[in-house]
Amino acid sequence: MLNKTRKTSRRSFVAAALLLAVAAPQLPAAAAATAPVPASSTARVPAPATGVPLGTKTLHLVDTARQDPWKPAAGHRELMVTLWYPALPSPGRPAPYTSAALSREVLGTEALAGVRTHAVDGARRAPGTRPLVVLSPGFGMSRLTLTALGEDLASRGYAVAAVDHTYEAPVEFPGGRVEKCLMCGTKEPGAVVRNRAKDLAFVLDRLTGPGSELRVDPRRIGVAGHSIGGASAVEVMREDRRVAAAVNLDGNFFTEPPAGGLNRPVLLLGARRSATVDPWENWEGTWKHLTGWKRWLNVPDGGHMTFTDVPWIVDRFGMPGQIPPEQVEGQLGSLRPARATALTRDYVAAFFDQHLRGRPSPLLDRPSAAYPEVTFLK
Length: 378
Description:
The protein is α/β, with parallel strands linked by helices.
């Protein structure tokens, strides 16, 4: 979530509202307290675009070639990854959104543990080789906040992997061990981006190598991320030729743009990027170095969290009363949650359909009457 130009208000929102009190330790998680969801009114992640059966798995990966950069005493770099994929029909119950323990870490209560997804844990994969999309969340934010996007992409035929970057958010490991955010408050966001690029490249190694839990086409790989995860998506594409296309969802860049240019497709989808000077200049500095297919789209009525699960979670569980009104708009904007989810899913899917599947989309060519909320800046 780290975004230099709007750091203070965004950090306060995450701490007191919904997502990760660790991003602002001066505000306790209890500030976000809300009653658990009654069993009779169990909430669900917004339904994906299609009714294709979905499966999900959780992976605990260890990169034995790297020592953890944020906590060297921990030894090798450990990551948690959620997979979503088209599956064969299964009688199993849809997986929970998260565990009670992680819900307490990110929300301050166990309410999110009552939310159900649309994917069955361990369901058998449907036949076929899939294009792969890897997702990276915002700074201080769990991979679970990209669940709605991940499930939707899987319903459209993609294999999807969402990565938790350990010590950059609360991360739960097998056995109930929870590692907290050690890096929240860091003044070295460039180092975070570079480390995330290594994390993402390692995940690609694992998912394209022997024994992978997914059948993926190594020639059709995309990466997308929110906030600093979006900057990291572009960074790993710059460094790793396997990545064919990247999406940055409202993330400032913290590393130097490639001097020789980056000639692969990039989608920049932001909120209010034309309203203030600093966000505009940040993307403008990298834009001129993107020499391949590129689009810069803006959601003037959106907020930094528009492209995550936060809008529908707030809609379901409510907004803590102590969040200053002037901060709420910067985070959520004025879009209805259903519209925020729909436009994020459709534009990201249109981009990957075009560049990983060769299916051009008019959404990427011109403003659409279906989404008047989205404007073309470049």
